[in-house]
Amino acid sequence: MELVKPNIPAQLLDKVKSAEQCGYMKTPECAKIKYELDLALRKSKVLFNDVSEIVVLITALGSFEGIK
User: Fold this and answer.
1) Are 52 and 7 in contact (CB under 8 A)?
2) Helices 13-22 and 28-43 meet at what angle, rounded to 10?
3) CA-based nearest residue to 37, from 11, 3, 65, 6
4) Total count of domains within the chain
5) In this predicted model, what pLDDT tens digit does every residue of 22-41 receive, in sequence order?
6) CA terminus-to-terminus distance, the chain
7) I need a surface site. Which of 14, 22, 41, 46 has the fewest CB within 10 A?
8) 40, burial (CB in 10 Å: exposed 0-12, middle 13-18, buried 19+)
9) In terms of Cα–Cα distance, which of 63, 15, 5, 53 is closest to 36?
10) pTM score, two decimals?
11) Going by C-beta distance under 8 Å and a sequence separation of 6 or more, which residues neighbour residue 19?
């Protein structure tokens, strides 16, 4: 989440904070907050394509370190 926070519009930051405090998917209420945040991000046409490449590289490096 720290990678995508700089790209989130200011009007959605309060929803992001409430989703973080709730624990994202720990309870059905939290899942509803996360779902509403996801819908709001899609309506705002916020894309995280650049972040997915970074996550893939970090995962690959982590698995490589695990093999050593």
Assistant:
1) no
2) 160
3) 11
4) 1
5) 887 888 888 898 888 888 88
6) 28
7) 14
8) middle
9) 15
10) 0.63
11) 30, 33, 34, 37
